[in-house]
């Protein structure tokens, strides 16, 4: 008769709804590979302390590899009583190697096992996510590099402010993602900590060599406190915080592009590959890719916030509440991975309309430059700001642009204006004036490109 792994002290049966409620296999089977790797390392560790003979170890590792291959090939058949990935693998191992499988869990608990699996699994995912983030950064930088000459209005409050290079805008988003890349890399040492060998909470009673386990599994360090080792899920929170912030950047980038893709702006057109139509309005081409990127940020933030609430107030070490770490983490990994790839595709394939950007530039975006012209002639900026403002008001009253005012008009506003004032009304000159580090001049845009390319190489 079948009995649960932990069934010894039980006489009553589990309520069927409780059984399903408790069962995590449907989602934690994603960690099958990490679970097998952890068990193989642990089996070797058991041999080192004499719990397994070398022959037993060999048999056990062969069995574990067969179980792992079943998962990889999609042939593993879960049984009704498999509670989670750990019990499922142990049950299946027993079907291959018999009672010897019962030695594998010596000194180990699912508490140190699951914490180890989660860290191993997440480390693999972080490596993938890092590549995807670098992919997104690369298209942003490449696009900026190829479109450095395009000028457009830069906005504050969504009102036209000053002329900028289109590349400068793209790179402003890339700067955020560069910080995200650094932050992601900084998470790794805190994820890469070995819990295995912590036992259920108090430590391992068979002198297992944890330094050996660390090396076998490729962790950077060892959990120095067994209670922390089994109870800590901060690495999951931190990853989800990282994803929340990264998605905030994704959402702001998307918002810019959604606005710029409207007919009213017309700066960019998304490729068909990343747009969808309307079921009723035949003319529509909607930026659904960008809207989903913006929308996913809410869900990812929710995953993080939800799990933080789960953790808050838990007593020390392992509590079953911790099983609730998996679905939000898996969902976060899936959605951030997809989002990074979609964003890369959108940016790589969209059309950018330099003429439309240029047309959106009007001379009022040069009012700051006009004020700065007088500053260069010795007038304090606070005064020149007013004089330029009066030029704007005069042009407005005449229904023309400030660039269409005459030299006589300017001279009436301030005696320091001379005929070279007309040179102010050139967008190229304006952007080239912003030549300090971080400005929108060509040299400074090129400087940003090389800084970002170096970060991508890291
Ligand atoms: N499925 C469990 C989880 O994800 C594994 C650990 C179970 N440990 C225990 N003491 N019941 O958290």
TrEMBL record:
Gene Ontology CC entries for this record: cytosol
Pfam family, one: ASL_C2
GO molecular function, one term: argininosuccinate lyase activity
Entry keyword Ion transport: no
Gene3D superfamilies named among the record's database cross-references: Fumarase/aspartase (C-terminal domain), Fumarase/aspartase (Central domain), Fumarase/aspartase (N-terminal domain)
UniProtKB keywords: Lyase
Keyword Acetylation found: no
InterPro entries tied to this protein: Arg_succ_lyase_C, Argininosuccinate_lyase, Fumarase/histidase_N, Fumarate_lyase_CS, Fumarate_lyase_fam, Fumarate_lyase_N, L-Aspartase-like
SUPFAM superfamilies with a match to the protein in the record: L-aspartase-like
EC class: lyase
Record-annotated Argininosuccinate lyase C-terminal domain positions: 365-432
GO biological process: L-arginine biosynthetic process via ornithine
Pathway: Amino-acid biosynthesis; L-arginine biosynthesis; L-arginine from L-ornithine and carbamoyl phosphate: step 3/3
Source species, domain of life: Eukaryota
Domain Fumarate lyase N-terminal: 8-302
Catalytic activity: 2-(N(omega)-L-arginino)succinate = fumarate + L-arginine
EC nos: 4.3.2.1
CDD domains: Argininosuccinate_lyase
Family per similarity comment: Belongs to the lyase 1 family. Argininosuccinate lyase subfamily.
Record-linked PANTHER family: ARGININOSUCCINATE LYASE (PTHR43814:SF1)
Protein name as it appears in the record: Argininosuccinate lyase
């Amino acid at each position: 008769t079948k009995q649960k792994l932990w069934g010894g002290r039980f006489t009553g049966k589990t309520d069927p709804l409780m059984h399903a409620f408790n069962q995590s296999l449907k989602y934690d089977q994603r960690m099958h590979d990490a679970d097998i790797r952890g068990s193989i390392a642990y089996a070797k560790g058991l041999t080192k302390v004499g719990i397994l003979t070398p022959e037993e170890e060999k048999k056990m590792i062969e069995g574990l590899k067969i179980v792992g291959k079943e998962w990889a090939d999609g042939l593993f058949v879960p049984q009704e009583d498999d509670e989670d990935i750990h019990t499922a693998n142990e049950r299946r191992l027993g079907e291959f190697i018999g009672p010897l499988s019962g030695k594998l869990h010596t000194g180990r608990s699912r508490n140190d096992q699951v914490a180890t699996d989660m860290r191993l699994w997440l480390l693999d995912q972080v490596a993938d996510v890092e590549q995807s983030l670098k992919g997104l950064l690369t298209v942003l930088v490449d696009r900026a590099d190829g479109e450095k000459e395009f000028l457009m209005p830069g906005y504050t409050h969504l009102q036209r402010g000053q002329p900028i290079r289109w590349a400068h805008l793209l790179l402003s988003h890339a700067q955020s993602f560069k910080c995200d890349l650094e932050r992601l890399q900084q998470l790794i040492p805190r994820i890469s900590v070995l819990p295995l060998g912590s036992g259920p909470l108090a430590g391992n009673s068979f002198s297992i060599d944890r330094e050996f386990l660390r090396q076998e599994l490729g962790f950077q360090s060892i959990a120095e406190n067994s209670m922390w080792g089994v109870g800590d899920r901060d690495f999951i929170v931190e990853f989800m915080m990282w994803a929340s912030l990264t998605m905030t950047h994704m959402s702001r980038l998307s918002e810019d592009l959604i606005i710029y893709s409207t007919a009213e702006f017309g700066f960019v057109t998304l490729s068909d590959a990343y747009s969808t139509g309307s079921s009723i309005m035949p003319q529509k081409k909607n930026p659904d890719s960008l809207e989903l990127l913006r929308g996913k940020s809410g869900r990812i933030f929710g995953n993080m916030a939800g799990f933080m609430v789960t953790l808050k107030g838990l007593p020390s070490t392992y509590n079953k509440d911790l099983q609730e770490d998996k679905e939000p983490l898996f969902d976060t990994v899936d959605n951030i991975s997809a989002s990074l790839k979609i964003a890369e595709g959108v940016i790589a394939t969209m059309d950018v309309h330099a003429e439309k950007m240029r047309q959106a530039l009007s001379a009022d975006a040069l009012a700051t430059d006009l004020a700065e012209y007088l500053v260069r002639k010795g007038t304090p900026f606070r005064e020149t700001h007013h004089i330029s403002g009066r030029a704007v008001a005069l042009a407005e009253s005449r229904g023309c642009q400030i660039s269409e005012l005459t030299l006589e008009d300017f001279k009436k506003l301030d005696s320091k204006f001379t005929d070279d004032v007309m040179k102010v009304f050139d967008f190229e000159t304006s952007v080239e004036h912003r030549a300090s580090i971080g400005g929108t001049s060509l040299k400074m845009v090129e400087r940003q490109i090389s800084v970002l390319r170096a970060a991508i190489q890291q």
